[in-house]
Design brief:
Number of helices of chain A: 6
Number of strands of chain A: 0
Number of domains of chain A: 2
Number of helices of chain B: 7
Strand content of chain A: under 5%
Order of helices and strands of chain B: HHHHHHH
Distance between the termini of chain A: 34 Å
Oligomer: heterodimer
Number of strands of chain B: 0
Radius of gyration of chain B: 16 Å
Structural class of chain A: mainly alpha
Structural class of chain B: mainly alpha
Helix content of chain A: 55-70%
Helix content of chain B: over 70%
Largest interface: A-B, 113 and 107 residues
Chain lengths: 138, 133
């Protein structure tokens, strides 16, 4: 049951990415290109997603268990530290070059697009490299 | 196009809300992918990942084309970008979904900083490649 609902939410998430235009690097870059012909459409993707998710997180804060009886697992880290800022900057550089972030990359890998398969394979290597770094402060 | 973007965002938000309230988990794609491909127990992460991949496979079966903006890019450049995305999201604990949607929706200052940094750097990167180089 848990795997089934997780699969269904993965499907829904992927459909949202596809419909929204996040899987098209041109539209992503047009959104990021504030100085050029800025296309604000993708702001609506984030705005729409946050508007729907916001009440769910408010509800989750007041409940310790999910509908399937699992502990609701919210991130515990609060510190704004160097790994957060450097990590976000490195991610932003890669996102700006390719125009795709992890979710759209995975949807396009399911499409068997060669570029996406290369992107996702390299993403996996990058993640494993980051895991080998000496332990960072909590 | 604006309506599609908004509708897509609402679906992403619904999937995020569902995974949180039904399964009890955060829909942060980079973290889910890192777990799903690791050695530990990752049942729900693998199931969620299968859902994402299935959408792409379904799009291929339905004859939807891969965006030209992806197929037209050089593979070495995509590999370098992918490695940066993987390294950065692991180091910074999240990507567009984990920090940009989940983190902002739960009003996390940490995620707000991360989202401002990655969107800012991505914007500058696009600016330099389009208007400077």
């Amino acid at each position: 049951m848990r795997a089934l609902t997780a699969f269904a939410f993965g499907l829904l998430f992927g459909l949202g990415l596809l419909l929204s235009g996040m899987t098209d690097p041109n539209r992503v870059k047009a959104f990021l290109d504030v100085a050029g012909t800025w296309n604000p459409a993708l702001g609506l993707v984030m705005g729409g997603a946050i508007a729907v998710a916001l009440p769910a997180f408010a509800l989750a804060r007041r409940n310790s268990r999910s509908l399937l009886g699992e502990a609701i697992d919210l991130p515990g880290k609060r510190r704004i530290d160097a790994p957060l800022v450097f990590g976000a900057a490195i991610f932003g550089l890669g996102w700006g070059v390719a125009g795709i972030c992890p979710g759209p990359g995975l949807v396009l890998a399911g499409h068997a697009a060669p570029g996406a398969l290369v992107f996702v394979a390299a993403m996996l290597i990058g993640m494993r490299l980051a895991e080998w770094l000496p332990s960072r402060g909590a | 196009m604006l309506a599609d973007s908004l509708a897509g965002g609402v679906l992403i938000g619904a999937a995020t809300a569902g995974l949180l309230l039904v399964n009890g988990h955060i829909a942060g794609i980079s973290g889910i992918f890192a777990r799903a491909t690791g050695r530990g127990v990752a049942g729900w992460q693998r199931a969620f990942l299968a859902g994402l991949l299935a959408v792409g496979a379904g799009a291929a079966l339905a004859g939807l084309p891969v965006p030209h903006a992806l197929s037209g890019q050089s593979l070495p450049l995509l590999a370098a970008a992918g490695a940066l995305v993987g390294f950065g999201t692991k180091l910074g604990n999240g990507c567009t979904s984990g920090h940009g949607v989940c983190g902002l929706a739960r009003l996390s200052p940490r995620s707000l900083v991360a989202a401002l940094v990655f969107m800012g750097v991505a914007g500058v990167t696009v600016f330099i490649r389009r208007h400077v180089l």
